[in-house]
Design goal:
Layout (H helix, E strand, L loop, with lengths): L4 H30 L1 E2 L10 E7 L4 E6 L1 E2 L2 E2 L19 E8 H6 L8 H9 L4 E8 L8 E6 L1 H12 L8 E3 L5 E6 L9 H11 L4 E2 L5 H5 L3
Antiparallel strand pairs: 1-11, 2-3, 2-8, 3-6, 4-5, 6-7, 7-10, 9-10
């Protein structure tokens, strides 16, 4: 039996409302990403080189294991990963996000609409993801950024404050990564990419005032 006209009209209205909401969200995100904070910031010629990595959906911040007086090994220990040999790499990649999204989506092929919907609605159950990696090569999805030692220490302090003191850690997807309990609430407004922007903004780096998408982060560099 075909839907009656009122039902068809209701379905059409709901679809249009959803389309409008998605369009408004995307437009607002692009506008927020285009409005600069710390507009007068310029990269120094010397200092600490960090990287921004974009896997198409999620951005991470790559930092040296030791630099400018900051040593991450007291917080992300070799014993926290399944294969401590990977801790010999000289960089770590740091990301933040919703626990269920991380745990239920080891690859993008595992992404389910319900997982995405739950994350978009919001959750205060968040994790920091640490990958032990060599220094990446700059390219289309990797940007190298030079920071002054003071800017780098501010960035590191902002990131370290996101870890829950004494929180648990869990092995990650392979031998090289781990998850750590984190502060903050994930939602469609405060995404993993918005978190990346927050951390850069805390260091005084020029970035959009709201960066919910990868392009609103990497587009500045």
């Amino acid at each position: 039996m075909r839907p009656t006209t009122p039902i068809r009209n209701g379905i059409t209205s709901a679809a249009l409302a959803l389309l409008c909401a998605i369009t408004a969200y995307g437009t607002a995100g692009m506008i927020g990403g285009a409005i600069p904070s710390h507009a007068d910031w310029r990269q120094p010629t010397e200092g600490v080189r960090i990287y921004l990595d974009d896997n198409g959906i999620h951005t991470g911040i790559v930092v040296p294991v030791t630099a400018a007086g900051v040593d991450w090994r007291d917080l992300v220990r070799p014993g926290d990963i399944a294969d401590p040999r990977y801790a010999d790499y000289d960089h770590i990649e740091i990301g933040w996000g919703d626990r269920q999204f991380y745990m239920q989506t080891p690859t993008w092929a595992d992404l389910r609409p319900i997982t995405l919907l739950r994350a978009a609605i919001g959750s205060g159950d968040t994790l920091i993801h640490i990958d032990h990696i060599p220094a990446p090569q700059p390219g289309e999805r990797v940007r190298a950024i030079m920071l002054s030692p003071d800017q780098y220490r501010r960035l590191a302090a902002a990131i370290r404050a996101q870890f829950i003191t004494g929180g648990k850690h869990h092995h990650g997807y392979g031998g090289w990564d781990a998850f750590y309990e984190a502060r903050g609430r994930y939602s469609a407004i405060h995404t993993c990419n918005a978190w990346t922007g927050d951390m850069l903004r805390a260091a005084g780096i020029r970035i959009g005032v709201w960066t919910p998408f990868p392009v609103t982060v990497l587009g500045w560099f």
